[in-house]
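Morning run. Coffee first, then this:
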Amino acid sequence: MVVKNAKWTTFNELAGTIKSVDPVKVSSGAVVSVFNIAHNKHRLIAHFHFDKQRVFVLRIMTHKEYEKDRWKEEL
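And here it is:
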């Protein structure tokens, strides 16, 4: 419910609410948000459109898959 009820307008506001998020620039030039989930066992990659109040989940992967960095070239 945190995301559903949020009215974030910037990444800094998002990070102020959810501490386990980092911005990562991918090959398309977009900046996505990477969340550590399940006690750092998994990663959730999302793209926030703060101006439209929309979030798109792009990937959910294990930490091992995340570390290979292939996902950065695909996004």
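The chain has one domain: 2-74. Good start to the day.
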